[in-house]
Amino acid sequence: MMKSYLITDPTFYGNTPDTLKSSLATVLSKQIPDFAVFRDKQTHSYDELAQTFIEVCRSYCIPKIVLNSNYTLAHTLKADGVHLTSTQFDAIVEAKGLGLYVIISTHTPLEALKAQELGADAITYSPIFASPNKGKPKGLEDLKEIVAKIRVPIFALGGITTQEHINAVSTTGAYGFASIRYFIP
């Protein structure tokens, strides 16, 4: 069975501890993902919100709780891992050295291979379907080709908003799917 990966966005989850708790509770009361990442590139209180995110996710028994890009904070707050950006390949080894589960964003076959060579635990590969401001979709055939070449677990990402999208991704052999909008009620 494919793994599910919830990605937060302040547009839907807010930018205060109270709004984050409330929004997460609403989302997690309907479905528990296998992975969840706190991603907020706008807030000035990332540390505080990350702590709130981890606490709420732990209370819902989410198996893998990760923070976006900041692997030292993920280690300090005892998150399970970190989701590195596609510009952070040099951080894979250091994050692994801290005992973190490392996911990294990839957008090309070369990036996917590089992530595998550097020891990433998993990758996201995107965008698979049309997604706001993410460029031309790669499509399911491209995803199938990457899945066939890469041993690292691959989360399909980008434009996955319906069960039909998930069903289509499942035909590629991908490890899972990641999404912001799929999880929003």
List the helices and strands and how they pair.
Blueprint: E1 3-7, H1 10-13, H2 17-28, E2 35-38, H3 46-59, E3 64-68, H4 71-76, E4 81-84, H5 92-97, E5 101-106, H6 109-117, E6 122-125, H7 139-149, E7 154-157, H8 163-170, E8 176-179
Report on this model:
The chain is of the alpha/beta class. The protein has one domain: Alpha-Beta Barrel (TIM Barrel). The protein is built from eight helices and eight strands; from the N terminus they run E-H-H-E-H-E-H-E-H-E-H-E-H-E-H-E. The protein has an eight-stranded parallel β-barrel, surrounded by four helices. Helix 2 (17-28) runs parallel beside helix 3.
Task: Spell out the helices and strands N to C.
Answer: EHHEHEHEHEHEHEHE
Low-confidence residue ranges: none
What's the CATH architecture? Alpha-Beta Barrel
CATH class: Alpha Beta
Number of strands: 8
- Secondary structural class: alpha/beta
Number of helices: 8
The oligomeric status of these chains comes to single chain
CATH superfamily: Aldolase class I
**End-to-end distance, in Å?**
23 Å
Q: Work out the helicity level.
A: 25-40%
Domain unit count: 1
Task: Characterize the main sheet.
Answer: 8 strands, parallel, barrel
Shape: globular
β-strand amount: 15-25%
Q: Could you say what the CATH topology is called?
A: TIM Barrel
